[in-house]
UniProtKB/TrEMBL annotation:
Pfam families with a match to the protein in the record: RsgA_GTPase
Name of the featured protein: Small ribosomal subunit biogenesis GTPase RsgA
Residue stretches making up the CP-type G domain: 105-264
Subunit organization: Monomer. Associates with 30S ribosomal subunit, binds 16S rRNA.
Gene name of this polypeptide: rsgA
EngC GTPase domain residues: 115-262
NCBIfam families (alphabetical): ribosome small subunit-dependent GTPase A
Protein localization: Cytoplasm
Organism, scientific name: Janthinobacterium rivuli
Annotated family: Belongs to the TRAFAC class YlqF/YawG GTPase family. RsgA subfamily.
Transmembrane segments: none
Amino acid sequence: MIAFDFAQLRLIGLQQAIASAATQLELSSPTAQLLRVCAVHRDSIGVHDGILEQPAQILPRLLHQLQVQDHILTVGDWVAAEPDAHATLWITAHLSPVTQIARRGNDGRRQLLASNVDTALLVMGLDEDFNPRRLERYLSIVLAAQVSPVVVLSKADVADDVPGKLAQLRQRLPPHVPLFAIDTRHAYDVAILAPWLGAGQTLVLLGSSGAGKSSLTNTLCATEQATNGVRHGDGRGRHTTTARSLHLCASGACIIDTPGLRSWRADADADTLAATFDDIAALAATCQFRDCRHASEPGCAVRGAVDADRLRNYHKLLRDARRIEETPLERIAARARWKTVLKAGLERGKDKRR
Ligand SMILES: Nc1nc2c(ncn2[C@@H]2O[C@H](COP(=O)(O)OP(=O)(O)OP(=O)(O)O)[C@@H](O)[C@H]2O)c(=O)[nH]1
Ligand SMILES: [Zn+2]
């Protein structure tokens, strides 16, 4: 049994599913608390109780369990923790996350980026940052995690041809993905995101450096910043050490902002790509050629119906994904195969010249 204050944890995004699971936890200690991971440091885990962030340690038994399940504690995870006699806080249990944003690392392993996220704001500038292909890459990862994506195009106040760029994206992105062009520094503009900022919601912001993520966070969490971490909701104005990576919005939502997420390169695997390009997969099924590469085959059903650059991006991402999924040995074998093919080609060329 674990006791917790739902209203207090709701401030940092406690979902009903997690709260229910927490009540089922078998814990020996009556002093265990439900907490949210808000930072992962080299030698400690930052956990938040809705008021304070504290450092905690993972119980070796749990660490072993997590390793067996191939899980590492990730920002956004919910855990149970209890203090020992020396006031060290020990994480004793981990609640299975409802959603997990992950990417495939260069070594082919899954890297967890954030857990229990409801909405990902994909922030992209309408200036030089504008890049539909990169956006599709981010989108495929977010959709695969079953997290709702919302595309926020920043710098609408200064960029040129905003309607043209919006139309271009509207054509490329799946129709259910919301798309907004705003000035991230203005509360009036940012108010359009209200439907995703309800109480208990957790958001992450993804986008390149300079895209406007900090500006957007500042505008969304203006009250918190202005009051320097005074607790919302109960008017008691209790002082808090708000975690640097967990921002509370006045609307009752919270934003997870970690350096790991910020510097993230959005590599997708073949399955996650399917989420963003499902129309291509559907068209491919109707293509008259069974092993069509939808590249130059005349009369191909895909090539006629899909934006050419978008199709090229799909093929490129698919190639990248396959490369990542190969083991190093497979890569060496593939390279050797190519060498043989190339050599054979050169030999043939020589024969002709002879
Ligand atoms: N005119 C205008 N400027 C913006 C807008 N959004 C961000 N900026 C400016 O762009 C610059 C970069 O914005 P940041 O919010 O720091 O970008 P970031 O995504 O947090 O960048 P990193 O912290 O490097 O990841 C700042 O000078 C902002 O003032 C916008 O909508 N309109
Ligand atoms: Zn085809």
